[in-house]
Amino acid sequence: MTTPPSPPRYTRGSIVEISSQDEGFKGSYYVATIVARLSPESYTVQYATLLDDDPLDPNPLREVVSPSDIRPAPPVVDIPDGFVVGDQVEANDNDGWWAGTVIERRMDDSYFVRFEESRTELWYERGRLRAHLEWVEGKWVRPPRKPVAAKVKREVVVDWVEVEVVEEVPAKRTVGRPKGTKRNKSCAG
């Protein structure tokens, strides 16, 4: 019988990602730096994009986390032809990376992504997606594609409002965030 590998031992300054198990945040990862190893069961990390709650002087959030919530920063996976339906991806949204599945691809290389945990589906440009990788026994593994129904039924709600056109401007894509998540403050502004 082989012993499962122990979690990696991270050193001060290591760039890592922290997974959240909190309700509404499962399946999300946040970039952080190891500040200190407190014991074999805990590390202090400082997040790259999350801020503390001090409204007068917000600083990067520091938190004590378990090694089971830490993974190394994943490698960049080159996807030269783009993602395909069923690919498991992570979307850069709401100050972190959110795991989801591509359910539709447009000709403009944007993708409709389903987030199982929050039961939402959102559009993303390719530059905001990366391949989802899992850290398994000390190695990065790309999970297989998930089967996706051929036809996706979407419910669209539209409220009609009469407006006066003052000026026409080029359309900009609006992207939401997974339903049930709170907006975190961002270091980027």
Helical element count? 0
Low-confidence segments: 183-189
Q: Give the CA-CA distance, first to last residue.
A: 51 Å
Tell me roughly what share of residues is in helical segments: under 10%
What class, by secondary structure content?
mainly beta
Biggest β-sheet description? 10 strands, antiparallel
Helix/strand order:
EEEEEEEEEEEE
Give the number of DSSP strands. 12
| Percentage of residues in DSSP E strands | 35-45%
Quaternary status of these chains? Answer: single chain
- Cα radius of gyration in angstroms: 19 Å
* Mean pLDDT reading: 83
Spatial shape: globular
What does this protein look like?
The protein has 189 residues and is mostly beta strands. Helix content is 0%, strand content 39%. It is built from no helices and twelve strands. Strands 1, 2, 3, 4, 5, 6, 7, 8, 9 and 10 form a ten-stranded antiparallel sheet that branches. Strand 3 (42-51) and strand 4 form a beta hairpin. The protein is globular. The N and C termini lie far apart (51 Å).
